């Protein structure tokens, strides 16, 4: 019985000692955590309540940003109005061709043959019109010389020496006949030019209806859309049985010309942009590469839509690229001004109220509001013309804002891996979650 009693007392003593050790461990951990928290809070209390930046000298580039698209300045379409079956295709994509080189051949159907014959007839008629216009000019030229000769003989004869004799009707009639004949002759030159334009148009229409498709310019073939055996044809109107020829694109030819990007500017930016200014261009689909160029044209008339006026600016790229395709979306930054060795501050430090511009400066731990004169600005920086000196410390924001943006989940327990400490259940143990 005494042995049982002794073992019971001994067990209770061991439990008391064990619980005391657990309590000591918990107290030590609490003390460590409290010390770390005190250090962290102390460090925070010593931090400046501001975000600051140093006034430095450097280079600033002011630019105007605008969006737009690539134009098809160096790409020409090859089209045809022929109808039938594609007999042969003589080129492939990326082939080099010369002007007039055969691209494809088409076996014309009945409608295609009729259109081709009609186009040839129109061409011959236009050719005859040019010949007739030239023949009329020769006739008018002969008549002009004849009238001029008649008037010349009258003016040189002794019958019309005096001013009174030159005022007689017959003298004036001869003069007016010559001038009228001369006017008809000169007007006929316009008639010939018109007939020649009609001839050129008829020839182009004939080529469009021709079974032979040729390249209009020299360059590289792309976007080839015809294959052998393919049926191409005229479109039939749904309301009538008439068939009308429509142009179909066979391929495109891209020459060595440099691409042009057309962008749209707001009216507030147009006065800052001038022909010859440099620009950088990025295409949405080619975002890994930046192109350079120069402003070549500025539309200062503009267009208005929904009471908003916009102005078109064309930028000629310095180099071409086969990757640049028509109508690709692009963003251009036009460099309007560049300055070197000027005082610069972050734009966030500059405050404007009415006509007064100022900057908050931190001097000897105290905040001062300093009036300044600013120059040009970039996306992130502003030039300071007067009011500050190199090395001044300007306030760009509040440190509390920065700490809030860094995240509200920060904890003084971060040194322990972010886990929370909990006391165990009835056993009083310590564990980490």
Automatic annotation (TrEMBL):
<dbReference type="InterPro" id="IPR058637">
    <property type="entry name" value="YknX-like_C"/>
</dbReference>
<dbReference type="GO" id="GO:0015562">
    <property type="term" value="F:efflux transmembrane transporter activity"/>
</dbReference>
<feature type="domain" description="Multidrug resistance protein MdtA-like barrel-sandwich hybrid">
    <location>
        <begin position="74"/>
        <end position="237"/>
    </location>
</feature>
<dbReference type="Pfam" id="PF25917">
    <property type="entry name" value="BSH_RND"/>
</dbReference>
<keyword id="KW-1133">Transmembrane helix</keyword>
<feature type="domain" description="YknX-like C-terminal permuted SH3-like">
    <location>
        <begin position="343"/>
        <end position="397"/>
    </location>
</feature>
<dbReference type="InterPro" id="IPR058625">
    <property type="entry name" value="MdtA-like_BSH"/>
</dbReference>
<dbReference type="Pfam" id="PF25989">
    <property type="entry name" value="YknX_C"/>
</dbReference>
<dbReference type="GO" id="GO:1990281">
    <property type="term" value="C:efflux pump complex"/>
</dbReference>
<keyword id="KW-0812">Transmembrane</keyword>
<protein>
    <recommendedName>
        <fullName>RND efflux pump membrane fusion protein barrel-sandwich domain-containing protein</fullName>
    </recommendedName>
</protein>
<keyword id="KW-0472">Membrane</keyword>
<feature type="transmembrane region" description="Helical">
    <location>
        <begin position="21"/>
        <end position="41"/>
    </location>
</feature>
């Amino acid at each position: 019985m005494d042995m049982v009693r002794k073992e019971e007392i001994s067990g209770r003593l061991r439990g008391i000692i064990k619980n005391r050790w657990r309590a000591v461990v918990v107290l030590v951990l609490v003390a460590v955590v409290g010390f770390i928290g005190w250090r962290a809070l102390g460090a925070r209390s010593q931090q400046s309540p501001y975000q600051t930046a140093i006034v430095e000298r450097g280079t600033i580039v002011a630019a105007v940003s605008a969006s737009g698209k690539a134009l098809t300045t160096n790409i020409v379409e090859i089209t045809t109005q022929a109808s039938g079956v594609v007999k042969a295709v003589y080129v492939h994509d990326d082939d080099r061709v010369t002007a007039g080189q055969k691209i494809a051949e088409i076996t014309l159907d009945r409608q295609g043959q009729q259109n081709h014959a009609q186009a040839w007839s129109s061409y011959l008629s236009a050719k005859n019109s040019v010949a007739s216009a030239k023949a009329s000019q020769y006739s008018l030229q002969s008549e002009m010389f004849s009238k001029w000769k008649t008037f010349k003989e009258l003016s040189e004869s002794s019958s019309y020496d005096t001013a009174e004799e030159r005022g007689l009707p017959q003298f004036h009639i001869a003069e007016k006949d010559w001038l009228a004949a001369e006017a008809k002759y000169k007007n006929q030159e316009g008639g010939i030019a018109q007939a020649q334009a009609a001839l050129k148009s008829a020839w182009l229409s004939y080529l469009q209806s021709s079974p032979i498709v040729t390249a209009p310019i020299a360059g590289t073939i792309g976007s080839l859309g015809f294959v052998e055996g393919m049926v191409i044809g005229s479109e039939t109107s749904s309301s009538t049985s008439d068939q009308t020829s429509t142009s179909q694109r066979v391929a495109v030819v891209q020459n060595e010309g440099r691409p042009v990007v057309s962008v749209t500017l707001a009216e507030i930016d147009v006065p800052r942009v001038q022909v010859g200014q440099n620009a950088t261009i990025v295409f949405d689909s080619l975002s890994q590469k930046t192109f350079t160029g120069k402003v070549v044209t500025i539309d200062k008339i503009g267009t208005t839509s929904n009471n908003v006026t916009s102005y078109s600016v064309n930028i000629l790229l310095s180099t071409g690229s086969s990757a640049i395709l028509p109508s690709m979306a692009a963003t251009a930054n036009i460099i309007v001004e560049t300055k070197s060795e000027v005082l610069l501050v972050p734009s966030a430090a500059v405050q404007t109220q009415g006509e007064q511009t100022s900057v908050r400066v931190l001097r000897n731990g105290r905040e001062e509001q300093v009036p300044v004169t600013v120059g040009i600005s970039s996306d992130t920086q502003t030039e300071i013309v007067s009011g500050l000196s190199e090395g001044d410390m300007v306030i760009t924001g509040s440190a509390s804002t920065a700490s809030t943006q860094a995240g509200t989940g920060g904890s003084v327990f971060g040194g322990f891996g972010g886990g929370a400490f909990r006391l165990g259940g009835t056993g009083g143990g310590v564990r980490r979650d």
